[in-house]
Amino acid sequence: MDLSKAGASRCEKLRWKGMFTDSLPDPTIQPCNDRAFWCQHTYTCLGPDGKVVDDFECSPARKCYEEL
Length: 68
Prior knowledge:
Elements (H helix, E strand, L loop, with lengths): L13 E3 L20 E3 L29
Antiparallel strand pairs: 1-2
C-alpha cells in the first residue's frame, strides 16, 4: 500500500511519517515505506485497546476506531 494514500477506511487517529512529508514522489528513489505508525490517542505504536496500529489493523473492527 502506498502509505501516502492510505485507504478511506483507516482510522482518523492513525498517523505515519508520510503524512508529514510535503514533496512529490521521485521515481528515481525507491520509496522507504518504513511502516512507522502511531496512534494519535496514545502517541505510541499501540492503540487505546493495547493492540498494534497500522494501515490494516486500524479498521472499523476496533472499538477505538474513529471514521475519517
